[in-house]
Amino acid sequence: MQTQVGIIGAGPAGLLLAQLLDRHGIASVVLERRSRAYVQGRIRAGVLEQGLVDLLHQAGVGERLAREGQIHEGINLALGGRLHRIDLTALTGGRHVTVYGQTEVTRDLFAARDAAGGVILEEVEAVRPRDIETDRPHLVFRKAGAEERLDCDFIVGCDGFHGVSRSCVPPSVQTIVEKIYPFGWLGVLARTPPVAPELIYASHGQGFALCSMRSPVLSRYYVQCSLEDCVADWPDERFWPELKNRLPAEVAASLVSGPAIEKSIAPLRSFVAEPLSHGRLFLAGDAGHIVPPTGAKGLNLAGSDIHYLSRALIRFYRTSEEAELQGYSARALARVWQAERFSWWLTRLMHRLPEEGDFFARMQQAELAYLVQSKAAMTLLAENYVGLPYD
Ligand code: RFL
Ligand code: PHB
């Protein structure tokens, strides 16, 4: 089998790249280890920056997003029993975010690839990039028990944090920077109306909580939990009272609970692998970097990586110039590091971190109090939350 760009992983990064390349006449094959049903069933991100929304429109998958995505012009911080609104739009000169689930983005991308006759091979096993330091790279894999080979010009690893591609960069040229946080997030999806029209990020003595949503009838909530906890430790009878306990009384009073239709625990991590390319292999999205979900940046960074990489590949196929491809890693990482900083800062500010001691807790309180009364401080939050520009 042969193509121009071999893509590992049919998450948002891989599918979006395939779709953008196709619109410029560049062929690709996507190799995905799971079934499509599994990929579409994973509940993950919900907040899209305008840069990603624009990119999805460029990719020709913006129609349902424009119809069903909810524009959010503000978020709320809940502190000391009160809500403080951060007016994203007023503070950033008219910008906003869009609430539209990653599951929906993935569904739209799969539909677009099908309509364009794109090749996505599902349930492939043992994918391995080969000869990435030569100009004849290829992928080997197993499909339905048979050994297969895909020859291509470039390989792009969009295979997420647990993928295979990152480990193909020799350790001698790869730097890994990582921070693991001493808590997790328990997430619940419920078929109930969201408690408020805008997201609420709550800092509370018992731990962080987040009220988010997917639609007017679908809520997404999170509470900070212990790393030792498993989903069975959090039956609905424990989850709803604990969530309400961490919210201001008036918010808790109007919260409609209901059976959880999905419940999962995610660890929190900051992680960057540098560089994001080696020879003819490129890494994009979670394959190259992870942020804690507090800043809602993971999917958005996958989007900005694909923006830079698709542009470089399109230029290469049009002009044979490799300079932009060679600059991909540095360019993408500059934006990644900004989102790493923001996500780390907001995570440390909002969560309960008893290991850090009383002084740290008082500094958190002082910073939060300053944040909600200083326009300058709120502007820093708003500017990063809506997303820094792509250059
Ligand atoms: P994905 O989505 O993990 O897709 C990778 C794909 O590669 C496949 N794969 C392989 N295929 C073939 N061979 C192999 N060896 C393979 N290994 C893996 C996998 O099956 C999968 O289909 O990575 P991608 O495309 O880079 O996208 C990244 C995003 O999924 C991720 O950053 C976000 O979900 C993070 N995130 C959020 N990001 C936001 O921008 N806003 C948010 O509000 C937000 N909330 C979240 C989040 C992530 C969360 N969890 C569970 C980690 C909330 C949560 C709870
Ligand atoms: C979500 O809706 O899943 C979500 C929203 C905002 C975040 C993280 C997750 O910061």
Overview of the molecule:
It is a single chain. The chain is α+β, with helices and mostly antiparallel strands and 391 residues long. It has two domains: 5-72 and 97-178 and 269-346, FAD/NAD(P)-binding domain (3-Layer(bba) Sandwich); 181-268 and 353-386, D-Amino Acid Oxidase, Chain A, domain 2. The chain contains twelve helices and 20 strands. It has an eight-stranded mixed sheet with strand order 6-5-14-15-16-13-17-20, with helices on both faces. It has a six-stranded mixed sheet with strand order 8-2-1-12-19-18. α1 links the parallel β1 and β2 (28-31). It is globular. It starts with a strand and ends in a 5-residue tail after the last helix. P-hydroxybenzoic acid is lined by residues 45-47, 199, 210, 212, 220, 293-294, 296.
The CATH superfamily of the largest domain is known as FAD/NAD(P)-binding domain
User: Mind telling me the C-alpha Rg?
Assistant: 21 Å
The CATH class of the largest domain is Alpha Beta
User: What is the count of helical runs?
Assistant: 12
Q: Mind sketching the topology for me?
A:
Layout (H helix, E strand, L loop, with lengths): L4 E4 L3 H11 L5 E4 L4 H6 L5 E2 L1 H9 L4 H6 L1 E3 L2 E5 L2 E5 L1 H4 L5 E3 L2 H14 L3 E3 L3 E6 L7 E6 L2 E6 L2 E4 L17 E16 L9 E3 L6 E7 L2 E8 L10 H10 L3 H6 L5 E15 L2 E2 L2 E3 L5 E2 L7 H22 L3 H28 L6 H15 L3 H12 L5
Parallel strand pairs: 1-2, 1-12, 2-8, 5-14, 12-19
Antiparallel strand pairs: 3-7, 4-7, 5-6, 9-10, 10-11, 13-16, 13-17, 14-15, 15-16, 17-20, 18-19
The structure holds 8-demethyl-8-dimethylamino-flavin-adenine-dinucleotide (RFL) and P-hydroxybenzoic acid.
